[in-house]
Amino acid sequence: MRTLLSLALAFVMVAPVATAGEKRDPKTMRIGYIMTDRNDVFQNMIADAVRAKADEYGVQLVILDGEDRAEKQVAQIENLVAQFYDGIILNPGSYEGVTNGVFTAHREDVPLITVNQVVSNQELCLAYVGSDAVESGRLQGEQIRQMTGGKGKLVVLHGSMGSEPEINRKKGLMEGLGDGDYTIVASNTANWQRDQAMRVVENWMQAGLDFEIVAAQNDNMAMGALKAIEDAGNADKIRVWGIDAIADACIAVKEGRLSGTVFQDAKGQGGAAMEAMVKHLQGEKIDETIWIPYIAVDQSNVDKHMP
Asked: Of 162, 166, 136, 132, nearest to 241 (Cα)?
């Protein structure tokens, strides 16, 4: 709990003037959003949605870049708490690595909502807004199984190791592949990054690794893999799947270059997270989990998800 002096100071600094029973004006709220990594296309889409919903309400918003470093996100949480922010929305870059920051916010009675990814001490958070990472991997695996006849040699591009979506998208992928005759011949992390994925796949091909399928845990990595494959003249031999349905991935699906992706609603996640925080600060009860569903995307429905 905060000290009495800190509580008094916080009240003087940010407490709204309101009569009994009156809902708090969102314009008096200060909310911090901590993103995972500003270099990631999908993370920027979530941040844009958080900002748009904050502007709609008139909320005072600060957006911070965690630079894909758990220790930086922890420090950012602690700084927002020390500055008496009313609430924090966190897109955690690590399942385990940000737990100390979550604990600090909980101890100091600052509501914290996770978006897009959960943390290991999620029970200390006000809510989670996002999608089930296992579901996304399962949909990807089902696409692969349906489009490759239930067999093949597979490589997997992982996101940041130890992050919740990295863990659960792999789990879902294996569920989606089911009892198909697949061999995972290699896997490596590309940390959600396009250039890293391109280098990993280039190295696999140069080493003579025999594979026909790339399952990338996000579209950034899928597009990096696709570039490496196309540059090497192997587009007719190796097929690539991603997750997120970002703009250029959808275009690649429409063109038949990318075999499939899975739509993850960045706008829905970011907007719902801000809406949930505002409702909570106005005294409304919100659900502990707010699900935003995934949708498998291929050439048959990609037009619905084009930018």
From this structure: 136
Angle between helices 219-231 and 247-255 (to 10 degrees): 50
pLDDT at residue 298 is higher than 70: yes
Query: 244 Cβ partners below 8 Å, 6+ apart?
Result: 41, 42, 218, 219, 220, 261, 262, 263, 264, 266
- Taking alpha carbons only, the member of 197, 209, 217, 221 closest to residue 141 is 217
Q: Which residues contact 285 (CB under 8 A, 6 or more apart)?
A: none
Which residues does 153 contact at the CB level (< 8 Å), separation at least 6?
182, 183, 185, 210, 211, 212, 213
Which residues is 214 bridged to in the sheet? 155, 240
Burial class (CB in 10 A: 0-12, 13-18, 19+), 30: middle
39 in Cβ contact with 193 (< 8 Å): yes
| Average pLDDT estimate for 7-13 | 34
Q: Which of the residue ranges 1-15, 44-58, 104-118, 209-223 would you say has the lowest mean pLDDT?
A: 1-15
> Which pTM was predicted?
0.76
Residues ≥6 apart with Cβ < 8 Å to 291: 130, 131, 132
Token pair 């037009």 in the structure block, residue: 303
